[in-house]
């Protein structure tokens, strides 16, 4: 397309060994200084398209492409054969940056501080040190990482990690930037920083491509939309033209309210006078630092009471300690001070595995939670000890609830990120715990996935389970929970 | 606690100590070097980790040396005991002792180095000497492999405990845990390596051309002089050993 810095005409793209194409009939173009949004539900092919555009999936080694790719005026034609041109990933990445959905995959893992991780791409390009120092300080300021420059990247929270991954991609100044779900796990301040950064980049002439399953504010600021459904581009055009289109409605794309209204808060907990199922009293906790020294406490004299059937949402800035709080419920972390009780019983001195019968924890990163060889084995792990002969039916029932019955024989690593989250949720639901602790359950879910999550949470609450969910999605928190609390300064307070 | 020595000086000191101990080939020196390394490890706060790793390497090695040389040493003349085809000889035991202590000293010194050196400093220092970045990456990956594996094992264990696996109840429970964790650990590491390779390529790691380093590592002149002296000392030790072992030509 005339004026485009990056364009693709994909007749078909097949992964090796797959008969059905992952992508077909997709025409894509991105112009300098604009945002292009690729929208679609789970499994629509957004990530595959993004990786193809960014050179992370190279025609030939990764699969067979019939079509063409054009970058900065250079056209590459592919017939899906041996004679196809080869993409040089280093040269391609000089001009096209990519931030994957799983931000941690971006990191080198051999750099010991955030500053060094930021400089990694510059080092590989032989940038003089004085310029590196300036560039690192500049990008850190733009992404809110200045205070974290000396931290080990492995200790960052999910939102901090996403901002670091984005800064790593931006720092080398590519002409095109492809961002896969760039707002996932970000707090409100992080969202503003990322949107400001994108504004600044487009102002400087960068073409930004956003892959998203939500037609949120960032997507609506795009100049151009491409709607993907089942690996095919079903519609292209301006947001104004497509926002109410049947093509968008058919996908699982989430459509946050176009007009901003405060969502209705659920009625008070239906069982106010019952004994609490989850109680935290005076809980304090800090991670040990190097040499055994205790860092600044993340949790301070924290108290929380949740009754059967009650849904509590916990919000707070990135790195506030929300995930750390949830890990205290089932004994994966032990408080330095105070007590945690589930159904009146303290887990102090008991191994974490004993708490699993009462507390189900959905991890922030589903890949950290999945370790089995098939989806069915994953859900079935540990169920027999809990439910005896009913274990099989419980596992199938949980898979049915999250819509993964057809994927029972699939390896969890082969599922798209949204299905991995739903699978992790199924492992929690199958145990029917008295307490559900859900860490960022909405991240990466399309509209269908959100519907299944909502149904599962409501059903758990209806049978008397206490639900505590951590989320940055304020609208979801207010709509889904009876109470919304904010974790700030190590304490919980009403939001 | 990381070593206060510059990384190249630590590397040279560890390498030269291993070479000199091997060249000297006397068990009292080897024993003294091994003990000194243990004391330094304890003082650096890594004694437990170094000794545990050394035990994992040296116990099976020591037993096999005893079996091989203690019981079957054809050159042995001073027979202490005989069990069928096995002969315990003083010469065999001495050889096993010398081999074991020599290897033990080298293992202790190198473990002390790897547990106290700052991997990022070492990689930056080597890159500053013009070594290929791929070499530095492999070295850093090797030095951080154990902590990385430990971190991944922690994640797997947490995921399994969150689903009812009880792992802290004695040896049998631990063995069950190891069996359950090994497969996901290995598969996860393989999966990680694939995605990591993509990310490294995308960040220009495989590209040609000169590299620069963000991290600056101090290398004072005294350290350089110390390294030169160590290298000369090690070369002299090897030369002396070769001279002492060189077969003298007899009269024809």
How would you sum up this structure in a few lines?
With 495 residues, chain A is an alpha/beta fold.
Explain the layout of strands and helices:
The complex is a heterodimer of chains A (495) and B (252).
Chain A (H helix, E strand, L loop, with lengths): L5 E10 L7 E8 L4 E5 L6 H9 L8 E9 L2 E6 L9 H7 E4 L14 H11 L4 H14 L15 H13 L5 E5 L7 H16 L3 E6 L4 H4 L3 E6 L2 E6 L1 H4 L3 H5 L27 E8 L13 E8 L4 E5 L6 H8 L7 E6 L2 E2 L5 H4 L3 E4 L3 H4 L5 H6 L2 H5 L3 H12 L14 H13 L5 E5 L7 H16 L3 E5 L3 H7 L2 E6 L2 E4 L1
Parallel strand pairs in A: 3-8, 3-9, 6-7, 7-8, 13-18, 13-19, 16-17, 17-18
Antiparallel strand pairs in A: 1-2, 1-4, 4-5, 9-10, 11-12, 11-14, 14-15, 19-20
Helix pairs in contact in A: 3-4, 3-5, 15-16, 16-17
Chain B lengths: L6 H18 L2 H17 L3 H25 L7 E5 L2 E4 H27 L2 H10 L4 H29 L9 H32 L18 H25 L7
Antiparallel strand pairs in B: 1-2
Description:
- Chain A is of the alpha/beta class and 495 residues long.
- Chain A has two domains: 6-250, P-loop containing nucleotide triphosphate hydrolases (Rossmann fold, 3-Layer(aba) Sandwich), CATH 3.40.50; 278-494, Rossmann fold, CATH 3.40.50.300.
- Chain A has 18 helices and 20 strands.
- Chain A has helices at 46-54, 89-95, 114-124, 129-142, 158-170, 188-203, 217-220, 239-242, 246-250, 322-329, 352-355, 366-369, 375-380, 383-387, 391-402, 417-429, 447-462, 474-480, and strands at 6-15, 23-30, 35-39, 63-71, 74-79, 96-99, 176-180, 207-212, 224-229, 232-237, 278-285, 299-306, 311-315, 337-342, 345-346, 359-362, 435-439, 466-470, 483-488, 491-494.
- A six-stranded mixed β-sheet of chain A has the order 6-7-8-3-9-10, with helices on both faces. Chain A has a six-stranded mixed β-sheet with strand order 16-17-18-13-19-20, sandwiched between helices.
- The N and C termini of chain A lie far apart (49 Å).
- Chain B is mainly α.
- Chain B folds into two domains: 1-117, no CATH class; 120-206, no CATH class.
- Chain B contains eight helices and two strands.
- A two-stranded antiparallel sheet of chain B has the order 1-2.
- In chain B, helix 2 packs antiparallel against helix 3 and helix 3 packs antiparallel against helix 4 (90-116).
- The longest helix of chain B has 32 residues, at 171-202.
- The radius of gyration of chain B is 23 Å and the shape is globular.
- The mean pLDDT of chain B is 84.
- Chains A and B meet through helix 2, helix 3, helix 4 and helix 11 of A and helix 5, helix 6 and helix 7 of B.
């Amino acid at each position: 397309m005339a004026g485009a810095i990056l364009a693709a005409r994909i007749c078909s793209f097949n992964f090796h060994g797959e008969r059905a194409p992952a992508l077909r009939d997709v025409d894509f173009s991105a112009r300098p200084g604009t945002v292009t949004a690729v929208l679609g539900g789970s499994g629509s092919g957004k990530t595959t398209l993004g990786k193809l555009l960014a050179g992370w999936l190279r025609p030939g080694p990764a699969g067979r492409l019939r079509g063409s790719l054009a970058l900065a005026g250079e056209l590459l034609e592919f017939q899906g054969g041996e004679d196809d041109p080869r993409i040089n990933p280093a040269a391609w990445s000089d001009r096209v940056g990519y931030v994957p959905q799983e931000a941690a995959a971006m990191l080198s893992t051999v750099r010991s501080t955030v500053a060094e991780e930021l400089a990694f791409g510059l080092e590989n390009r032989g940038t003089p040190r004085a310029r590196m120092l300036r560039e690192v300080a500049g990008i850190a300021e733009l992404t809110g990482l200045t205070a974290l420059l000396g931290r080990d990247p492995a200790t960052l929270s999910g939102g901090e990690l996403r901002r670091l991954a984005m800064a790593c991609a931006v720092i080398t100044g590519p002409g095109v930037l492809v961002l896969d779900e760039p707002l996932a796990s970000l707090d409100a301040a992080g969202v503003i920083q990322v949107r400001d950064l994108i504004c600044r980049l487009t102002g400087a002439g960068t073409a930004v491509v956003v892959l998203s399953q939500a037609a949120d504010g960032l997507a609506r600021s795009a100049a151009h939309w491409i709607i993907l459904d089942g690996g095919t581009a079903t519609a292209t055009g301006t947001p104004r033209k497509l926002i109410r289109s049947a093509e968008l409605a058919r996908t699982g794309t989430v459509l946050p309210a176009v007009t901003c209204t405060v969502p209705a808060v659920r009625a008070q907990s239906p069982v106010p006078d019952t004994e609490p199922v989850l109680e935290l009293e005076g809980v304090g906790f800090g991670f040990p630092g190097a040499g055994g020294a205790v860092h600044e406490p993340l949790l301070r004299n924290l108290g929380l009471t949740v009754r059967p059937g009650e849904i509590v949402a916990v919000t707070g800035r990135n790195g506030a300690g929300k995930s750390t709080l949830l890990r205290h419920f089932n004994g994966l972390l032990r408080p330095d001070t105070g007590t945690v009780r589930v159904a009146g019983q303290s887990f102090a001195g008991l191994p974490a595995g004993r708490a699993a019968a009462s507390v189900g924890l959905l991890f922030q990163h589903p890949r950290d939670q999945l370790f089995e060889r098939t989806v069915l084995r994953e859900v079935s792990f540990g169920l027999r000890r809990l439910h005896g002969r009913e274990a099989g039916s419980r596992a199938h029932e949980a898979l049915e609830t999250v819509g993964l019955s057809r994927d029972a024989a699939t390896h969890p690593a082969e599922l798209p990120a949204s299905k991995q989250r739903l699978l992790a949720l199924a492992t929690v639901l199958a145990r029917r715990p008295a307490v559900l602790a859900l860490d960022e359950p909405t991240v990466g879910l399309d509209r269908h996935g959100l519907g299944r999550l909502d149904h599962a949470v409501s059903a758990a609450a209806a049978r008397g389970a206490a639900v505590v969910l951590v989320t940055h999605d304020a609208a979801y928190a207010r709509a889904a929970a009876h109470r919304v609390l904010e974790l700030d300064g190590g304490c919980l307070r009403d939001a | 606690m990381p070593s206060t020595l510059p990384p190249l000086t630590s590397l040279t000191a560890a390498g030269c100590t291993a070479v000199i101990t091997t060249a000297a080939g006397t068990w009292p020196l080897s024993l003294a070097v091994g003990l000194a390394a243990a004391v330094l490890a304890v003082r650096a706060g890594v004694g437990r980790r170094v000794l545990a790793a050394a035990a994992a390497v040296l116990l099976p090695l020591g037993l096999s040396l005893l079996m091989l040389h203690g019981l079957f040493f054809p050159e042995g003349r001073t027979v202490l005991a005989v069990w069928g085809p096995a002969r315990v000889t003083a010469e065999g035991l001495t050889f096993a002792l010398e081999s074991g202590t020599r290897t033990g000293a080298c293992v202790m010194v190198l473990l002390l180095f790897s547990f106290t050196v700052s991997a990022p400093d070492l990689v930056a220092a080597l890159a500053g000497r013009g070594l290929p970045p791929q070499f530095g990456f492999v070295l850093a990956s090797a030095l951080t492999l154990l902590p990385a594996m430990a971190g991944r094992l922690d994640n797997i264990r947490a995921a399994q405990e969150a689903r009812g696996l009880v792992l802290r109840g004695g040896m049998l429970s631990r063995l069950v845990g190891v069996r359950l964790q090994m497969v996901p650990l290995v598969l996860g590491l393989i999966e990680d390596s694939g995605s990591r390779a993509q990310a490294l390529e995308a960040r220009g790691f495989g590209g040609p051309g000169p590299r620069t380093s963000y991290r600056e590592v101090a290398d004072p002149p005294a350290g350089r002089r110390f390294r030169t002296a160590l290298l000369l000392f090690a070369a002299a030790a090897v030369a002396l050993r070769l001279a002492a072992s060189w077969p003298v030509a007899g009269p024809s």
